[in-house]
Amino acid sequence: MSAPLQNIAIVRASGQVGSFITKALISQGKHTVTAITRGHKPTPTPRNSSAQMPAGLHAIKEVDYDSHPSLVTAMQGQDLLIITMNVLAPRDSQTKLIDAAIEAGIKWIMPNQYGGYYADDDSGPGKDDMLRDITVATRRYIEAKGASWIGVACGFWYEFSLSGGEIRYGFDFEKKSLTLFDEGTVKHTCSTWPLVGRAVAKLLALPVSGGSPCLEEWRNRQVVFSSFAVSQRDMLASVLRVTGDEEGEWRITREGSRERFERGQEMFKGGEIAGFGMLLYARVFFPDGDGDLTGLRENGRLGLLGEEEDLDEATRVAVGYVESGKAKEWSF
């Protein structure tokens, strides 16, 4: 049985999901973790200026995305590259990182794919997701370069999504309003940020080969896991328990999930970025059930059984993001 991969490089180690993955990798003590970050800018954005690198990193490598040699040098000696970045980042950012990683000798890449399950063809979950074509093209690109990828199918991030305004899960906490998609009873799978961190860390703690489970079993495929399978009605019940509100205090309206999806498409085509989020979220609540990945999830194989999470506690975190104003940083 071979050893786990030792040297892990991660892009945006201080980011939304990147910070949880980085902390989990460091805490289990099986890897040396290097942060790949853009070099200092004279006038950083508020998000850059407030970001704090997790403690315990082996190194922090500052890079220039416009300098291929800079990226290659930063990634030399690494076994796996984890890419986390905003889904709306420039399209060539990930390609630049992949090219440099492969030239530096990295054989395993976890690309910027955190969310849905995307089949290689137009069938099954994710077939209508606007990110599917980009995701599949990235996979093929990595394979053509002679490296291997592992995708993360964790569903939407629960705290981020619940606190992120009406365009995501339909909740507007400031107005105490909720838009139910259809009847609000269709379940979908989603994950908390801490679970994403733990799942990725447990996956990378596996031996590369020689036993089962091992990393080779996820070569060029997605790892599927989740915290909850919940509907909007389940989320509302949790919100009421956490806040102490009565349902009558909330203004509840309805919109068809397919109509909402089409409305989001039209908004996005018209240049409204909010439409992008609206269509992504509406799709997982279609009555066809494609948003529920319970039958595919691999929590047990990752050693996550016995670590079940509490929905109300995750809701409490989301409400805290709203009350602190932090959730507004994540608005489209």
From TrEMBL:
Domain of life: Eukaryota
Database matches in SUPFAM superfamilies: NAD(P)-binding Rossmann-fold domains (SSF51735)
UniProt keyword Oxidoreductase present: yes
Keywords on record: NADP, Oxidoreductase
One Gene Ontology molecular-function label: oxidoreductase activity
Gene3D superfamilies: NAD(P)-binding Rossmann-like Domain (3.40.50.720), UDP-galactose 4-epimerase, domain 1 (3.90.25.10)
Domain NmrA-like: 6-157
Protein name: NmrA-like domain-containing protein
Native source species: Friedmanniomyces simplex
